[in-house]
Structure to design on (109 residues):
């Protein structure tokens, strides 16, 4: 065998090894990047969920004003629909003056 063929064969082997090494490094880098992107996506999703859950509790002023207005209307409607309250029983003694009415719970003995 000639020396030239041996050197050419050695060169082909070295090129093949370097190509395989680069492919392995590229695959390793891609897997690492994929894991980092997945972690970043999960962290971003958690941050977005937390932010929007906090914002849900902060109701805009116009909504609060509308709710208060509706509550006032509802309270007024309930008050209108409520039957007039009847007064408690009154005890009147036989020969007492008419302006001395005392509710039953407040009678003195």
């Amino acid at each position: 065998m000639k020396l030239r063929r041996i050197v050419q064969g050695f060169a082909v082997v070295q090129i093949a090894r370097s190509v395989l090494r680069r492919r392995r490094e590229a695959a390793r880098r891609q897997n690492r990047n994929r894991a980092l992107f997945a972690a970043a996506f999960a962290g971003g999703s958690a941050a977005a969920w937390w932010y929007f859950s906090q914002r849900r509790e902060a109701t805009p002023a116009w909504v609060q004003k509308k709710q208060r207005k509706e509550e006032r209307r509802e309270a007024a409607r309930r008050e209108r629909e409520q039957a007039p309250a009847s007064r408690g029983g009154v005890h009147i003694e036989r020969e007492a003056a008419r302006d001395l009415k005392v509710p039953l719970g407040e009678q003195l003995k």
